[in-house]
Amino acid sequence: MEELLRYVWKHRLFPLSPLKTIDGLPVEVIDPGLSNPNAGPDFSGAKVIIDGTKWAGNVELHMKASDWFLHHHDEDERYDSIILHVVCESDATIHRRDGQLIPQLVLPIPDTVRGRYEALLQEEHYPPCYHIVGDLSKLTIHSWLSALLFERLEMRRAQILERYEQHEKNWNDALFATIARSFGFGVNGEAFDTWARSIPFRAVDKHRDNLLQIEAIFFGQAGLLRPEALPHYYRDEAQKEPYYQQLCHEYDFLAHKFNLRPISTSLWLFARMRPDNSPFVRMAQLAMLYYNESLSAATLVGLPDKENILSLLRVGTSPYWNTHFTFGSTPTINRPKVVGDASLALLLINAVAPFLFTYARHMGDDATQEKVLNLLEQLPAENNYITRSWSTCGLNVGSAADSQALIHLKRLYCERKDCLRCRIGYQYLKKG
After folding, report:
1. b/e code 387-399 from CB counts within 10 Å (16+ = b)
2. What is the pTM of this model?
3. 232-241, pLDDT tens digit by residue?
4. Fewer beta carbons under 10 A from the terminal one: N or C of the chain?
């Protein structure tokens, strides 16, 4: 509940009656200061007037005044600059290290704010603030969604920069690894991410003119050439197939040559999955994408619009996969397994856009950063439980920029019950 007290102080949700210290001295808050999320006083740069004297400095908040001693602030020089101690309950007087008393203010949390906050925490309906969404101004919604989108892109940027470092600061490898993770389409995202980290791209480059060898390394490193990775009813048939035998033979040779070790087959999930989304089919598409040699950071930056980017990613597979969805499966009607439009849109949203944003930031390319934002605003919103829930509340989810912001809102705010940092939560609490 101390977080709620910090919230009340930060947003000046003070009671109507005049503020006074526990000694009866009048207090006027000119500026509550800047919230400090790190160690040290809760707010810095605050300005208050106490009994006619103006003070500037830091403010500390606690539920109980005695928490000052519980946290050993009386022994910490960082707290000698405190000009006001704000508490819900005054059960002790507090002082600096030299014994000087610090003014103390009892600030009750308004009942309406407390009640609404507790209601948000206990609400099982999603989103918990659905009562107010339809009443919010378009400016409030737009500004918050824009901030959330940027926050999400920044989070993705940190992940992509980590890949960039892991892949020896090679942007093209980081790009391929980023796209590879998205090829898991949620279900196998972690498996594809782990797989991409295991790929020695410089070794693969030496065999880039040979699709079979690329497939051998890709499938082999994924552990998908192991019999235990196959459905048990296809294992015998798979091991009879020339294509499977060739891949195994090539991988054994290349694994010895480059000292390769495959990832665990236990990472892959196969249950309740459409055949076209099988990890085997997706891996074959990734192999073709790599074999084409058309994907690079520089190429992406130079493409004028989303249609050109989609065309670049719209790859198929080698002929075997046109009639199979796993090794040894019963052949189906011959149908090219090309990445579909819905999947392409997700790749654009979850991989290409964050990568371009990261690359452009690194290069100081403002025009490409702007292109990324325009790209997300041009793409249709994702259709999932999150976006449908907000639409039901009356919020217009018009583009991928909106849906990405709302996904970020749910995962980083709603699921953590972090309503106090949410601008919609603020409007909900303030309404009381």
Report:
1. bebbbebebebeb
2. 0.86
3. 889 999 999 9
4. N
